[in-house]
């Protein structure tokens, strides 16, 4: 019936939910922003770089593994650039012999290019720094990095801000406009943020909040429709 209150309520709720979701979808591109930070990567020492699921201060790579750090400007972790050097343990740690109670970790530091640099700064002339860290068996990725290159600069939240003086200041700043996604052919990565650039629990950018918010609106709308029909 046209005057049925349950149906009227259902139409109102459905219309409101659709309106909110459309509003969020339209607003999403305007909220997009980039971050300039040191991203953290892992490898088994012979495979591909994988975006780390935890920060270097808690990650504990094993003997024969590789870790990488890349300074880049990115919209979120899905378009972060990988270190440009391959995670080859056999190449980087060639000639470093095993020692009791230690482990060997290949370390790659990529300072990025000029487009990634903060205003007024330039990356070092030698873009890449590689080395083999021989550290205690329980050492973290951060300790392995410190064994290869210093000094390291962290903020009060243990965020990795600078490696060997680059950048000289700032830490994971949000920028109004990020450069386009990685060059063609560069694979995307797991969009799980790393503590190398964000504290654990941070989302991957505004898009995640929009999707979750829209889903919540639809779920609440569906519950209201069900209740309205029950009352009718």
What is shown here, in short?
It contains four helices and eight strands.
Describe, in plain words, how this protein is organized in 3D:
This protein has 232 residues and is an alpha+beta fold. The chain is built from four helices and eight strands. Strands 1, 2, 3, 4, 5 and 8 form a six-stranded mixed sheet that branches. A two-stranded antiparallel sheet has the order 6-7. Strand 6 and strand 7 (160-163) form a beta hairpin. The N and C termini lie close together (11 Å).
Low-confidence stretches: 9-31, 181-232
Annotation, overall tally of beta strands: 8
Distance N to C terminus: 11 Å
Number of helices: 4
**How can the largest sheet be summarized?**
6 strands, mixed
State which percent range the strand residues make up.
15-25%
Helix/strand order: HEEEHEEHEEEH
The residue-averaged pLDDT reads 73
Shape: globular
Radius of gyration: 23 Å
The helix content is: 25-40%
Derived from helix and strand composition plus strand pairing, the structural class reads alpha+beta
Protein traits:
4 helices, 6-stranded mixed sheet, two-stranded antiparallel ribbon, 28% helix, 8 strands, disordered C terminus, 232 residues, alpha+beta
What is the topology?
Elements: H1 5-31, E1 34-43, E2 50-51, E3 66-74, H2 89-92, E4 102-110, E5 128-136, H3 141-148, E6 152-154, E7 160-163, E8 174-175, H4 206-231
Parallel strand pairs: 3-4
Antiparallel strand pairs: 1-2, 1-3, 1-8, 4-5, 6-7
Helix pairs in contact: 1-4
């Amino acid at each position: 019936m046209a005057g049925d209150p349950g149906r009227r309520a259902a139409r109102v709720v459905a219309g409101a939910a659709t309106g909110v979701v459309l509003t969020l979808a339209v607003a999403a591109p305007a909220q997009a922003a980039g971050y300039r930070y040191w991203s953290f990567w892992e490898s088994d020492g012979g495979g591909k770089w994988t975006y780390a699921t935890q920060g270097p201060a808690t990650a504990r790579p094993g003997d024969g593994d590789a870790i990488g750090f890349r300074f880049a400007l990115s919209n979120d972790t899905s378009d972060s650039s990988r270190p440009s050097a391959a995670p080859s343990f056999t190449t980087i740690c060639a000639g470093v012999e095993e020692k009791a109670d230690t482990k060997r970790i290949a370390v790659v530091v990529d300072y990025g290019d000029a487009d990634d640099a903060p205003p007024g700064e330039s990356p070092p002339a030698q873009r890449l720094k590689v080395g083999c860290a021989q550290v205690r068996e329980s050492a973290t990725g951060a300790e392995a990095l410190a064994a290869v290159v210093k000094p390291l600069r962290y903020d009060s939240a243990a965020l990795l801000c600078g490696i060997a003086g680059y950048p000289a200041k700032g830490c994971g700043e949000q920028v109004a406009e990020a450069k386009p996604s990685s060059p063609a052919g560069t694979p995307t990565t797991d969009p799980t943020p790393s503590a190398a650039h964000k504290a654990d629990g941070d989302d991957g950018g505004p898009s995640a909040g929009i999707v979750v918010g829209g889903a919540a609106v639809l779920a609440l709308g569906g519950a209201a429709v069900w209740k309205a029909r029950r009352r009718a």
